[in-house]
Design brief:
By secondary structure, this protein is an all-alpha fold. The protein contains seven helices and no strands. The radius of gyration is 19 Å and the shape is elongated. It starts with a helix and ends in a 12-residue tail after the last helix.
Length: 166
């Protein structure tokens, strides 16, 4: 059980950091001018339409992703059966992570593609800040699935070895 929860946490963590890496890669490519910013800046109507769509997507996905695990159906899937909890957490956690990470990456790309339109930059930053609220630590994974256990069962570095721990 504990290895399965660690595996779930590791996969969710990988999804998060790959998205952050892609966002930073987009920034590096455009800031170093390997890809020229503003290649879609002539399309004013497209820019307005895409901007409105991304605002709606981000403003809908943020509260939905933050409260998703509190809905009765998903909370039941995560907490009813400890044997399927890691699998269900991986499935729903991936959906939640992608609801924040995909708009973050897309908005950062659109920021540069439309010639440094700050609307997309701010939407990307807002999504990035929301990642702190769903950061997949092992204790959060256990808490969201309702699994009660000793911390030593899941902690890869038990605090008994550390003389400075309280």
């Amino acid at each position: 059980m504990k290895n399965s929860m660690r595996r779930t946490r590791d996969i969710l963590m990988t999804e998060l950091w790959v998205s952050v890496f892609l966002t930073v890669l987009i920034i590096i490519l455009f800031e170093s001018e390997l890809v020229l910013p503003g290649f879609l800046s002539d399309e004013a109507n497209v820019q307005l339409l895409v901007g409105m769509i991304m605002v709606i997507v981000v403003l809908a996905f943020i509260p939905l992703s933050l409260y998703m695990f509190k809905t009765k159906h998903i909370h039941g899937l995560l907490t009813d059966d400890e044997s399927t909890a890691p699998h269900n957490l991986l499935f729903w956690g991936t959906i939640r992570m992608m609801m924040l990470c995909l708009p973050m990456v897309v908005c950062m790309f659109l920021y540069y593609a439309f010639g440094l339109n700050v609307r997309f930059f701010y939407l990307s930053v807002i999504c990035a800040l929301c990642l702190f609220m769903v950061y997949p630590t092992l204790s959060r994974c256990l808490n969201e699935t309702g699994i009660k256990s000793d911390a030593d069962d899941y902690d890869p570095n038990p605090s008994d070895d550390n003389p400075h721990s309280y």
